[in-house]
Amino acid sequence: MKLSYRQIEPFVAKPDPAARVILIYGPDAGLVRERAAIIGKSVVADLNDPFNVASLSAEQIVDDPTRLVDEASAMSMMGGDRLIRVDDASDRIVTFVKTYLENPSQHSLVLLVSGELGPKSKLRELCEKSKAAAAVPCYVDDAQDLGRLIRHSLRDEGYSIESDAVSWLAENISGDRAKVRSELEKLVIYKGDEKAPITLTDATAACGAAGAQSFDDLVYSVAGRNPSAAMNAYETLMAEGMSFVAILRAMQNHFRRLHLVKAEIAAGAGVDEAMKKIHPPVFFKVAPAFREQLQSWPLGSLDRILLKLMELEAQCKTTGMPTETLCAQAILGISKMR
């Protein structure tokens, strides 16, 4: 079964019993791990239970064609349902999964964990079309989804948060879900027993340096036409395991903000007045660089860059060319524009 956007969270919280195989995939590795753990615990209380949990790799399934069916068909020695987790799932195992789905066990859940799978993936297509399977995508949260996650996560910890703090965090701690959770934990530790609403000052104090620095280094180097610094920042983000979607969205957000302010100035607003109209506000430490970039980039160039970044995201998702190469080319190309 193919899940709509609104069906994903309810499904993860309470998987449909009809789905005996669940594929969890996407570029957000942290969210993949988080959802795999939640779904796994809907079957077994302890994911390390040696009797009711079997962990396989795609390689093991390919080497032993009956392994998946044998594991999923085995009865638990201790009673209860079993979880069969397959890491690094890919199209290599689609034949074995298809065979299993012809007669799946009602006492075992097969959890396929993968990275990004394109629309043409045979494994993804199988799980989306089968009534006995489901595909759960895990994409990097956009600003709106991230804002909702921030509010809900902090509320669960007993904190409220002001709107401008949510907006700033949504812009500056973007990345995979694990990184977002880590930054929110830092914020909770920073607040301690103080239950007053979290302010923008709190957010920047707890998460400003680590949460935004790498992305700021990248986007301000690109928009500042410094290709060497831009590539260094890009390589740092890639080394930290940041997905290309998060990197592209960071650049899109920055150039969109430049475009919005530039358009206000073109309509007759002063620079200060125009900058006050964007949310979250420009962080004071980078405000001078932002002003310089406003003067440096014509509105038409910003239009072309935003279009280029949109096309790049589509290209990364539909072609076989390595996303790292496409991103690097775009970063160099934009940072060298005159």
Task: Please give the CATH class of the largest domain.
Answer: Mainly Alpha
Order of helices and strands: HEHEHHEHEHEHHHHHHHHHH
- Residues in β-strands, percent: 5-15%
**What percent of the residues sit in helical stretches (DSSP H or I)?**
55-70%
Give the number of domains. 2
Task: Explain what this protein looks like in three dimensions.
The protein has 338 residues and is an alpha/beta fold. 59% of the residues lie in helices and 8% in strands. It folds into two domains: 5-137, P-loop containing nucleotide triphosphate hydrolases (Rossmann fold), CATH 3.40.50.300; 143-335, Zinc Finger, Delta Prime, domain 3, CATH 1.20.272. It contains 16 helices and five strands. Helix 11 runs antiparallel to helix 16 and helix 15 (299-318) runs antiparallel to helix 16 (323-335). 37% of the residues are buried. The mean pLDDT is 87.
How does the SSE layout of this entry go?
Blueprint (H helix, E strand, L loop, with lengths): L4 H9 L7 E5 L3 H13 L11 E5 H6 L3 H7 L8 E6 L6 H8 L6 E6 L8 H8 L3 E5 L5 H14 L6 H10 L4 H15 L8 H24 L3 H13 L4 H23 L4 H5 L11 H10 L2 H20 L4 H13 L3
Please give a quick description of this structure.
The protein is an alpha/beta fold and 338 residues long. The chain is 59% helix and 8% strand. It has two domains: 5-137, Rossmann fold, CATH 3.40.50; 143-335, Zinc Finger, Delta Prime, domain 3, CATH 1.20.272.10.
Entry keywords:
globular; Rossmann fold; 5-stranded parallel β-sheet; 2 domains; alpha/beta
